[in-house]
Design brief:
- This is Metallopeptidase.
- Pfam families: DUF4344 (PF14247).
- Keywords: Signal.
- The two termini are 37 Å apart.
- Strand 3 and strand 4 (87-91) form a beta hairpin.
- This protein is an alpha/beta fold.
- The protein has a 4-stranded mixed beta sheet with strand order 1-2-4-3.
- It has 12 helices and 4 strands.
- Helix 5 (111-137) crosses helix 6 (146-159).
- The chain binds zinc ion.
- Residues 128, 132, 147, 150 line the site of zinc ion.
Length: 263
């Protein structure tokens, strides 16, 4: 009985101050799939608490409205942010696609490397979708294509990471994400007209945007990109300015919503 009284008084106090039991800012949910082929992905992600881990990035910000991160069956290979619903959806199908493509294309690497690529490709994709949520919910003004901006903010999260080994894995994962559908990556003769009208830039462009920011953020560590002509000098010359613009944008528009570090 005493326990109940204590609990009640805590509840009343928290209602008064609206703090202790405040509603969670980031809600994680795994919806079981109907398709048997997707069940292993549901089990795996849930048991590894993959969304809870991803939520860590979302929790860096103060959301004016709760944000839901959901894993579900979508009947398409995709991930999405649903504007107006404050909901990021990661489809089991995209995880299945990533796993299958990694196993088919990176068989010459060991299992640990392949698993790292799968995880970090998914992290990049999640951060891209989270960026859409940031733009919509925090009403961040955008001038130009939202997909390019979402990639840019996702790259910013990866490149600002303190641990260099982790940065490398994140970049390798994103690279695989861009390359996975086209084994002739860079061979633009295979594109049909629709590829150019898509809301997303070509995967190759998304990949070079990533290299450009990486080169600007880490001029010494990533110098090889230019030396080995992986990033053409003609583009590299613009990268410091591009990175500065991205940093200024993030600092001015998104940083004000950062959760203040507790002292
Ligand atoms: Zn997008």
């Amino acid at each position: 009985m005493q326990k109940i009284i204590r609990l009640l008084s805590i509840l009343m106090l928290s209602a008064a101050f609206n703090t202790t039991f405040a509603a969670p800012q980031v809600i994680v949910t795994y919806t079981p799939p109907v398709d048997e082929n997707l069940k292993p992905y549901y089990e795996f992600l849930k048991s590894r608490q993959a969304l809870e881990a991803a939520a860590g990035t979302a929790k860096l910000l103060q959301w004016p409205t709760p944000l839901t991160l959901e894993a579900k069956q979508c009947n398409e290979v995709n991930a999405m942010y649903v504007p107006g619903e404050a909901r990021v959806i990661m489809c089991y199908e995209i995880f299945k696609d990533l796993v299958e493509k990694v196993e088919a294309q990176l068989g010459h690497h060991d299992q640990k490397y392949r698993d790292d690529i799968k995880k970090h490709a998914a992290v990049f994709l999640f951060r891209h979708e989270l960026s859409h949520a940031i733009f919509d919910i925090l009403k961040i003004p955008l001038i130009g294509n939202e997909e390019i901006a979402a990639d840019a903010v996702a790259f910013h999260y990866s490149l600002e990471q303190k641990d260099m080994a982790e940065v490398k894995k994140l970049l390798q994962g994103a690279k695989f994400y861009f390359m996975r559908r086209n084994e002739n990556f860079g061979d633009d003769t295979r594109y049909d007209f629709g590829a150019f009208s898509d809301i997303h830039p070509l995967s190759e462009q998304r990949y070079f945007n990533m290299l450009c920011y990486t080169y600007a953020k880490f001029p010494e560590e990533a110098e090889f990109l230019v030396k080995q002509e992986l990033l053409p000098q003609g583009r590299a010359d613009y990268c410091p300015r591009e990175w500065k613009q991205l940093q200024d944008g993030v600092h001015r528009l998104i940083r004000p919503y950062a959760v203040k570090a507790k002292k």
